[in-house]
Amino acid sequence: MATQNKTPTACATCRSKKVKCSGTIPCDYCEDRRLECRPASKTQRRFYSVEYVEELERRLETCENARQLPASIRPGNAVQNFVYRTGSTDTD
User: Fold this and answer.
1) Among 37, 39, 60, 78, whose CB has the most other CB atoms within 10 angstroms?
2) What is d(CA 39, CA 12) in angstroms, rounded to the nearest whole number?
3) Domain count, the chain
4) pTM higher than 0.90, yes or no?
Protein backbone atom coordinates (compact mmCIF):
# COMPACT_ATOMS: atom_id res chain seq x y z
CA MET A 1 0.00 0.00 0.00
CA ALA A 2 1.41 3.39 -0.99
CA THR A 3 1.62 6.09 1.64
CA GLN A 4 -0.07 9.38 0.90
CA ASN A 5 1.57 12.69 1.58
CA LYS A 6 -0.66 14.68 3.91
CA THR A 7 -0.40 18.41 4.38
CA PRO A 8 -0.71 19.87 7.88
CA THR A 9 -3.37 22.37 6.73
CA ALA A 10 -6.18 22.45 4.22
CA CYS A 11 -5.41 23.30 0.60
CA ALA A 12 -6.18 26.81 -0.67
CA THR A 13 -9.37 25.69 -2.44
CA CYS A 14 -10.82 23.87 0.59
CA ARG A 15 -9.88 26.79 2.82
CA SER A 16 -11.61 29.31 0.57
CA LYS A 17 -14.71 27.08 0.17
CA LYS A 18 -14.67 26.24 3.90
CA VAL A 19 -14.96 22.51 3.32
CA LYS A 20 -13.20 19.55 4.91
CA CYS A 21 -9.89 18.83 3.21
CA SER A 22 -8.54 15.28 3.15
CA GLY A 23 -5.02 16.68 3.46
CA THR A 24 -3.62 14.84 0.43
CA ILE A 25 -2.34 16.54 -2.71
CA PRO A 26 -4.55 16.51 -4.68
CA CYS A 27 -7.22 16.31 -1.99
CA ASP A 28 -10.45 14.39 -2.46
CA TYR A 29 -12.57 17.53 -2.79
CA CYS A 30 -10.44 19.05 -5.57
CA GLU A 31 -9.93 15.72 -7.32
CA ASP A 32 -13.68 14.96 -7.44
CA ARG A 33 -14.40 18.39 -8.89
CA ARG A 34 -11.30 18.53 -11.11
CA LEU A 35 -10.09 21.70 -9.43
CA GLU A 36 -6.51 22.84 -9.02
CA CYS A 37 -5.31 21.64 -5.63
CA ARG A 38 -2.48 23.68 -4.21
CA PRO A 39 -1.25 23.97 -0.65
CA ALA A 40 -2.35 27.12 1.14
CA SER A 41 0.46 29.60 1.39
CA LYS A 42 1.39 31.05 4.72
CA THR A 43 1.04 34.56 3.26
CA GLN A 44 -2.73 34.06 2.89
CA ARG A 45 -3.15 34.42 6.63
CA ARG A 46 -4.34 37.82 7.77
CA PHE A 47 -2.42 39.83 10.27
CA TYR A 48 -3.96 42.74 12.16
CA SER A 49 -2.19 45.66 13.72
CA VAL A 50 -1.99 45.98 17.49
CA GLU A 51 -3.95 49.25 17.26
CA TYR A 52 -6.79 47.56 15.38
CA VAL A 53 -7.02 44.72 17.91
CA GLU A 54 -6.95 47.18 20.82
CA GLU A 55 -9.76 49.21 19.21
CA LEU A 56 -11.85 46.05 18.82
CA GLU A 57 -11.22 45.15 22.45
CA ARG A 58 -12.33 48.64 23.55
CA ARG A 59 -15.50 48.37 21.47
CA LEU A 60 -16.25 44.93 22.90
CA GLU A 61 -15.76 46.21 26.45
CA THR A 62 -18.14 49.10 25.74
CA CYS A 63 -20.78 46.69 24.44
CA GLU A 64 -20.35 44.35 27.40
CA ASN A 65 -20.60 47.23 29.86
CA ALA A 66 -23.74 48.57 28.13
CA ARG A 67 -25.40 45.16 28.53
CA GLN A 68 -24.86 45.33 32.29
CA LEU A 69 -26.59 48.73 32.66
CA PRO A 70 -30.29 48.80 33.46
CA ALA A 71 -32.32 49.18 30.27
CA SER A 72 -33.66 52.58 31.36
CA ILE A 73 -30.22 54.20 31.29
CA ARG A 74 -28.51 52.40 28.41
CA PRO A 75 -27.01 54.67 25.76
CA GLY A 76 -29.16 54.88 22.64
CA ASN A 77 -32.45 54.25 24.44
CA ALA A 78 -33.57 57.90 24.47
CA VAL A 79 -36.41 57.35 21.97
CA GLN A 80 -37.54 54.14 23.68
CA ASN A 81 -37.45 55.88 27.07
CA PHE A 82 -39.44 58.80 25.70
CA VAL A 83 -42.09 56.50 24.22
CA TYR A 84 -42.29 54.52 27.47
CA ARG A 85 -42.71 57.61 29.64
CA THR A 86 -45.06 59.63 27.45
CA GLY A 87 -46.75 57.01 25.28
CA SER A 88 -45.91 59.11 22.21
CA THR A 89 -43.20 59.09 19.56
CA ASP A 90 -43.40 62.87 19.01
CA THR A 91 -40.13 64.40 20.12
CA ASP A 92 -41.07 68.03 19.28
Assistant:
1) 37
2) 6
3) 2
4) no
